[in-house]
Amino acid sequence: MEISNTDKALVLAKALPYIREYNNKIVVVKYGGNAMVDEELKAAVMSDIVLLSLVGIRVVLVHGGGPEITAALKALGKETHFVEGLRYTDEETVKVVQMVLCGKTNKDLVNLLQQHGGNAMGLCGIDGGMIHCKKTEIDAGFVGDVTQVNCQPILDALNSGYIPVIATLGCDEQGQLYNINADSAAARIAAELKAENLISLTDVRGLLRDKEDNNTLISVVNASEVPALMRQGIIAGGMIPKVECCVEAVRRGVRRAFIIDGRIPHSILIEMMTDEGIGTMFLG
Fold first, then answer.
1. Which residues of the chain have pLDDT under 70?
2. How far is residue 181 from each of residues 14, 68, 157, measured CA to CA in Å?
3. Which CATH architecture has domain 23-283?
């Protein structure tokens, strides 16, 4: 559909208050799911991030890479299985995670951002001692819980004009590598950076009162409401860890956290640059 020059000008004028609000603020985007697999959606996400960066918003991209890790393991003849939603990560698997996540997936995203006119730098949690972790209490092998985040490598990249692209691998005091859930890592990174927003791109519309009906989207949730929503079964299954990460982020000082549908083109811009938004916003 062709948009007139007048309509283009109106869109820009309406975006101005939001651009002013977010100028020089840090926004952390957690990226994964179908938006990471579909090439058209991936291009839309990257163009959104570049646009935000060019108008003065300091974007940090934290990514997973589950489908690519699974494909790499399958090619090696190794089956994937999960324990309480976490990929079981033995010694061989953690090496594959490092190779795929920090190598191919991370550098593909950096390359794509630069193709869209951005200036990006790939990092992982090992770089500069960024993400310290310990073995999670769940028996899932080398899967870690974040204990500390050193923000300096991220701030150095931002202050030099780069979009940091972070792969979520970390290590403990002995140098042992651990696979880290990307939602958990993004929440902790956003908190330590004192980010304005944490935006989690997922495969669902947001938090729904009826998971079968997109028209039952809950637009705003206060952290204090979450336990009741869990008891009612509204927050259940795979949504539980995502919501818990949003709650952790806002309770640690992030102003707002969002769960939005990464399958919708330009969902980041719709959420950040319009009154209505598109997903579920969590407040502390």
1. 1-3, 8, 33-35
2. 37, 15, 23
3. 3-Layer(aba) Sandwich (3.40)
